Amino acid sequence: MTEIPSRYNPQETEDKWYKFWTENNLFSAKADPAKKPFCIVIPPPNVTGILHMGHALNNTIQDILIRYHRMLGESSLWMPGTDHAGIATQNVVEKDIAKQNLKRQDLGREKFLERVWQWRDQYGSTIINQLKKLGASCDWPRLRFTMDEDYSRAVKEAFVELWNDGLIYQSDYIINWCPRCQTALADEEAPHHDVEGKLYYIRYPLKDKILNPKSEIRNKSKIQNSKSKNYIVVATTRPETMLGDTAVAVNPKDKRFKNLIGETVILPLMNREIKIIADQLVDPKFGTGLVKVTPAHDPNDYEMGLRHKLQFINILHPNGVLNENAGEYSGMDRFEAREAILEDLTERKLIEKIDDYAHAVGHCYRCHTVIEPYLSKQWFVKMKPLAKEAIEAVKKGKIKFYPKRWTKVYLNWMENIRDWCISRQIWWGHRIPVWYCQDCKNIIASVDTPKTCSKCNSINLKQDEDVLDTWFSSWLWPFATFYWPNKDEKVKKELEYFYPTNTLVTAQEIIFFWVARMIMAGLYFRKDIPFRDVYIHGTVRDIEGKKMSKSLGNVIDPLDIIKEYGCDALRFSLVSLTSTGQDVFLSKEKFEKGRNFANKIWNASRFILLNLKEENTSQDLCVVFEKENLNLADRWILSNFYQMLADLDKALANYRFNESVNLIYEFFWRKFCDWYLEIAKLNINDKNTQIILYKILEKSLRILHPFMPFLTEEVWQKLPNVKESISISSWPHIQKQIIDRKVNSQMQILMDIITCVRNIRSNVKIPVNEFINIQIQTTNKAKAALINENKEIIKTLAQVKEIIFIKDKKEKQKGISSVVSKDLSLNIPLEGIVDTQKEEQRIKSQIEELRAMIIDKESRLKNKAFLAKAPEEVVEAEKERVAEIKEKIGKCKEILRAFN
RNA sequence: GGGCGGUUAGCUCAAUUGGUUAGAGCGUCGCGUUCACAUCGCGAAGGUCACAGGUUCGAAUCCUGUAUCGCCCACCA
What we know:
31 helices; about 15% strand; RNA-binding; 29 strands
């Protein structure tokens, strides 16, 4: 055997094996009718992306599933790709050119896009290379990009199909506008965050009141019944929007203001006359019950504006600077204007009061700038018709969420869905495939660039300037990555083979953006669901529960962890921390568990390989199991392996990854290493021992492989008789006939004796290297025989010189005794003075514990209802237990007496 | 304003459909370098399962309420 270092060194193995896998095309999957398909499409990371812990968790889970199914013999395809990420990427490149004091407008559309493509060519593969470091077994030659030519065609096809079906329309509407990115955003892209703001109460003078102080308004208005008041008060959080006010509204049922309806107020600062209108949208309980109406800058006000045919005054430039409609404030930034306006209002004594007010404000999900509701012409997708089937598919269970609770979140969103604003005023993205005839105003939506107007044959056509929302391309991902709608037979067959895909693995943040929309797109364009299962994992957070982010400086970089602990350690630890859907709280130390386990596997392998004779490695385990006389430990470890395997398959089928990892850990470390390997040392050259050591190791490596791919390949390649990569080896089959419960209880007897002896030794401080005699007293002949057969195990593992069976108390030598079970006790003869205090204490507390149990159980057994209603097995078990405990207590007392 | 999740050992988390004595890792304490592994081994200590009711023969687990932390959604200015 060649030298094997005593520490596992991930740095030396990882890149080597990754190269080996890809060079041999081991991750490539074909549409093979003889095999079952298994397919996952990767949530395409942004081309601007850098691998963070969220990616690490997300992709580790996918890789586990993919590798597992590959080993199950399925045609297991992991479709890789990246997303052009319109706004995010454009922002990055804009920042880049800003270093040269350039704006994108300085370059012009074409030149700017060239720069973006250059940037992509240079940095776009960063995240892909990082995924490779993670061990991701994607079918890399299939790598897709949402701006690829074929993919772009799919996007246009999708647009035109929806347009032809009347599901896309263009409209003036209040949308979320990011003044920094200078684009419209979808509702999902403008999440609300609480902001500590102010609620400003502003006085608007009443025109009539000024002209006619005797007006009846004075006395009927409750909150403004002061004689001197010739104004009304409105409340707002955004005072600068008052410049665009074209009405004030009250609730028609609000008695206080009944007589105000129809009156005119003078809009301060602008000196515009605006009417007081009645609209049910107004909540009488909020603020003063009087609402300023700014139809161009608030969604509610917009609706009121339509209803009451108000004027729509846009006061903002796209960059958030006030425009010519803002009077003397034009040219100021919106927040600057707010201050100026407040100052002027204060000066004119028009501020009634200012309250602190925490409220939720929309923020741009890309740059976190406060968004403005903004009236503009945009493109929308009608969502209700698409949502209908998407709701059905989930309700009928065609698509299942894991964990289940996300179903409700999904349905709730779907059922309240609103139309989707898909146009973006940026340059990087899929340009909207719509042309406007400059002559007859005809609108043409077309996949290919039209040459003439379909109505008037004019050649004077102009394409829409906007691009599509990035998510308008990603919602096609599960089928556009298979070159949909390409009609070529070969290409179509692939799509038909792998679609619907099996599992989508993603984080909760993206359910609305992506998951929900993919379901709609799949059902609409493909008439079939895009995937069957959706596994939602938790969010990775730091140890304080905060989301990891660069700005918080609490990031743990997965690549650093890979360097320091190894990729397998990273994967193992991450997965062992994710119980279904719970957020993962990380700290660096948590990766030690994975590193230590990797080292344990390494060393157990090292031990076996150093002791293995090659001729013993080609035996079939099942044949050996049936033909040979296996000893107890052999049968025990085999039974445990297959029991664990059965549990593991079940856990994986239910996406219980942490349970999977724990099962393997428990088996390999706590059973195989702690017990079996130690026992195997007794007869390491025995043929059966050799075969079992080899087989358990070899099978353990296989089941470990999806979780820890590099280490397992490295060890696997050191096994004799191994030719191919472990990544394409087959997953072990369950052998039910080998699972044997009786073997477990027999082995437990030995383990209990050994633990008991070790315990006493520790308590009375018998030196580890001192071999002692033990006396065993048992009435159970089977147990005695079992112990006798396996006495070497006890001797070695408990440092015992001789095991002496005794029949009664008289034979017992002076020493320390202990009760192992009701019919078995042991005694360690001790000469001279030893410190027995601790041991005595141990027995005493043991008795106390047992007594407490008896009290509990006896009261239960006295309960008639329990006897009548509990299942018979439970009652019987309790009775047996009581008898057993009683016997044990008796023995313990006996021992205690011997101390005195 | 709705919805969801958490609250279990000093710390971080498990506990599948209610059923023996609620588990693990880290940390703590004691012993140990006998050659697979000190990234280790052996032994031990440590829990009124947030709180209060209820259902049940039986509850960490089911129901109701409370407290507390966190997340998501929502056009109340």
